[in-house]
Amino acid sequence: MQFHLNGFQPGDPEIADPAQRLHPSGAAGTLPEKVDVLIVGCGPAGLNLAAQLSQFPGIKTCIVEQKPDRLLLGQADGIACRTMEMFNAYEFADRVMKEACWINETTFWKPDDAGNENIVRSGRVQDVEDGLSEFPHVVLNQARVHDFFLDVMRRSAGKIEPHYARRLLDLRTDPVAGIGDHAVTARFDRLDDAHKGNVETVKARYVVGCDGARSTVRKSIGRELQGDSANHAWGVMDVLAVTDFPDIRCKSLIQSARDGSLLVIPREGGYLVRIYVELAKLDVGERVAERNITAADVIAKAQRILKPYTLDVKEIAWWSVYEIGQRICDKFDDVPEAETAKRLPRVFIAGDACHTHSPKAGQGMNVSMQDTFNLGWKLAAVLTKRCAPHLLHSYSAERQTIAKELIDFDREWAAILASAKGQADPAKTQDYFVRHGRYTAGTATHYRPSLLTGEASHQHLARGFAVGTRFHSAPAIRLSDAKPVHLGHIVKADGRFRIFAFAGAGDPAAKDSAIRALCDFLGEARESPVRRYTPGGADIDAVIDVRAVFQQGHGELAIEAMPSLLLPRKGRYGLLDYEKMFCPDLKSGQDIFAMRGVDRSKGCMVVVRPDQYVAEVLPLDGYAQLAAYFDGFMLQAG
Fold this sequence. Notes:
Layout: E1 34-40, H1 44-53, E2 61-64, E3 78-79, H2 81-90, H3 93-99, E4 101-102, E5 105-111, E6 119-126, E7 138-139, H4 142-155, E8 166-173, E9 184-190, E10 199-209, H5 216-220, E11 226-227, E12 232-243, E13 251-255, E14 261-266, E15 272-281, H6 295-305, E16 311-324, E17 327-328, E18 347-349, E19 355-356, H7 364-383, H8 393-417, H9 426-435, H10 437-441, E20 475-478, E21 484-486, E22 497-502, H11 514-524, H12 529-533, E23 544-549, E24 569-570, E25 575-576, E26 581-583, H13 592-595, E27 604-608, E28 614-618, H14 623-631
Helix pairs in contact: 1-4, 1-7
């Protein structure tokens, strides 16, 4: 898509009239007195959480924002491959791919060896390694990401709209409240002209602070961001410009001889471009605001770095200056480490409220959304009484460790980009970028063994589905209608677990097949987690969704001969669900068994969490291990 030709316009570019591109946003009236979940902050983390909770109409969710209205432009823009996989779970990845700028290659520029002040291209690499994800790395205005989440929220069963123009004053938690009580009290100051000065009070069972680096929620629970103080100032601009720099539509990392570094990020629409410009090293304790840097200063610095190429800025859509600092909280909830065994968390923090990154590694928005993608299904599972409340301890335990790993990567990457003038090593920069591509793609996350993640004792049965990592999708053919699909796209943001049963050798329809025996256990045995944790009257796949993948081509199997669990009757009419069985895509040569290293002789089970991470790889007859996994945190249906 091409747009922004005659100036930047926010909103949906497919709507011709700019005045109609922005849909109204925001709830009317006062805040509700009591809610199950109160979300403070309408950034990507907060909206992601609200979108996930909106899938559950029985959960009362309220999201509150200090700003007077929705975001229209600026801020983050990089969307990692892993984030695109998550967007697909909300079913708007295709909209993002259509509108966004795809980052296909990254180019590297260094000072000319001739000794002048010019720059020359030193390298060009593919941005994302082959086979890492079925989705690309893309760039799109953060405001549009917000729009897509807002669409999910307003179209869902929960129908959530943000409450704008409210500033959180304080939080208070009742230490003796019961688990079902609304134990947290939040007070908000209204900032809109019609109600300025009014104070509203909300009681919540849980509060999630997604309110940024200066988080009031974080301060209210006594947490602090700790880490490196900012020592580099950078400028960032979204511009419409005329230039003869040849790589303006590629992601480009430029290191000059005397004027520092510059990062070029092509943006959506074919004309807009973002530039990050290294400005100055700050003194200890100095803030970038004290430098009084102007937009003209940022442009002039960019023009010097780009020599011998020219840059004529025609319009600035948005710009800012910022300090780089990598900081993190020691814990992401309100329970002190020493009290974890006897207290349950009530207040959580996510995104910039608990970890901050430099923008150039593209981690901030992506990691923030993964925080709340991790937390959302857990809150929903506890509030709907599917899981025991101690499950909520796993949020901080999992995400704080991952944030620390990413901050360590971010610190190294930021240091390489801000290398002393004339001392940068272009080869080192390119090598580091290639070697750490999985961090920037968002696929490096690997959860350690825990309540929710197994020990990988049977990893040899499916080497390509590493326990603790995200479920790496692969092509398959749906048995019922021969439709090509991506297996991972089955995992939606609906709070359900998935069990993918990969058949071993032999006829899966045979009476003595391992797949049939597994389906008999799951469908009939008293110890079956499917039977034990599915509420009476609910569809059989309402909590744990079982799918099967066979080795034969789809034309070689008779769907009517398959186990009844794979043809479940659902809904008020008992209609058959024909979408539970899959085969390899043998025609294209993309055999999922070969691609993901699944044992052809024995097959296996792959258990996938609601946030798309592999929880267990088990033998097809590992019934006791499967039951023990779910028994560790789930509550038996009444």
